[in-house]
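#lab-general

N.A. 3:47 PM
ok so I finally got the sequence cleaned up, no stray characters, all 98 residues accounted for. can someone with queue access submit it? mine expired

B.Y. 3:52 PM
send it over

N.A. 3:53 PM
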Amino acid sequence: MAMRSDSARVSPAAATRDGQEPPATPVNIVASVVTPTAAKVTWNAVLGAATYRIQRKGPGQSSFSDYATTASTSYDDVAALASTSYSYRVRAENIAGA
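B.Y. 4:20 PM
back already:
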């Protein structure tokens, strides 16, 4: 299984909510093969993030789709198919949005 990681972008014009601004984009996103059918995706913590939304794109898919949400700075994708390449994207979120 081959891995590639990408990061999402945050609009600087995003509105605040309850005095909070949307968090910055996570950086240092790394996807590592753990087993032939599992990958671990990690990234640096983002100040002000409550959760992280992991998005995944597989073969034949033209766009990313929401895949999982976590409060951690890592995610174990245990539903990967062997010999299949995936791309991952991570968005930080809080009450103000992403």
